[in-house]
Amino acid sequence: MKISRRLFLGGVAACALSNHANSANEIIPSGWHTLLLGAGGLITGLDIAPDGTMVCRTDEYGCYRWSGTTATITNPSDKWVQLVTPASMPAGSKFAVPLSCYECVIAYGQTSRLAMIVSNSTGASNWAVYISNDHGSHWRNTGLYMLNADGNSPTLQKGASGKILFDPNNADVVYVGMPKGSGNDYGVYRSIDGGVTFSPITSIAAPTLDPGCTAMCFDVHYGTTTVGGQLRTKRLLIPVGGQGLWETLDGGQNFVEVGSTSLKTVSIHQAQMDFDGVYY
Questions:
Q1: Which of 41, 57, 114, 174 could be cross-linked to 104 through a Cys-Cys bond (beta carbons 3.0 to 4.6 Å apart)?
Q2: Closest CA to 47 of 39, 61, 57
Q3: Could you give the angle at the alpha carbon of 206 between the alpha carbons of 163 and 115, nearest 5°?
Q4: Which residue has the higher pLDDT, 142 or 41?
Q5: 218 strand-pairing partners
Q6: DSSP state, residue 213
Q7: CB-side exposure of 149: number of CA atoms within 13 Å?
Q8: How far apart are CA 271 and CA 258, in angstroms?
Q9: Pairing of strands 43-48, 230-240
Q10: pLDDT per residue as tens digits for the range 261-278
């Protein structure tokens, strides 16, 4: 049978035929096999913990964890593992398509703990915060919901960072910034029990500009304090789009608006804190 070029190219889009080894160490048996061609979409965020744990998020399909660490990036047995699967998500989950991920981060003090924002697993038309305590193998819907957290949004919010932030000295303390138009009354919600429950920071108003409350940063060099018997990093900066910039110096007991009034007319998409506590 004569195979046309069009038919052949259409076939290799789904599979490839092999009858020889593709390397000295791997033997591919004869027959048809899946050919990994990739797909469209963007890697919109990457988080790397000090111990080398890595996760990334995408605007089209979920988020991923590197099965090794930064020390094993050339190890052929390590790979990027999809974290949003029927096995990992709550039973009976229903998701929007495409399954974009608005945020995915690591708790640096306990890298088995991850947090992410994807569509609500209950099937409601909003997004939810999820916590995993086993490297993303299983996720729990925390019940903290929001609107307008589309990780595939045409606005720049999908590339913004610092939407979820774990205290680097205590993985039980986690802050979640709201997007503009979240449907919630406040700009930031905090958990002090590892994401089991969340409460609003009532002194911080809801954002009025995209991407919302993003680019949150801890200053680890400012030291720690104890709040209610719980160790916390003292200094945290929280910018809120259209509202201003808030700072705490006492582990989150009090937040004070800082900076000039011009900050009320801008939003910050990405930021970093340097060794000397300078916020960029």
A1: 57
A2: 57
A3: 25
A4: 142
A5: 236
A6: S
A7: 31
A8: 16
A9: unpaired
A10: 778 888 899 999 998 999
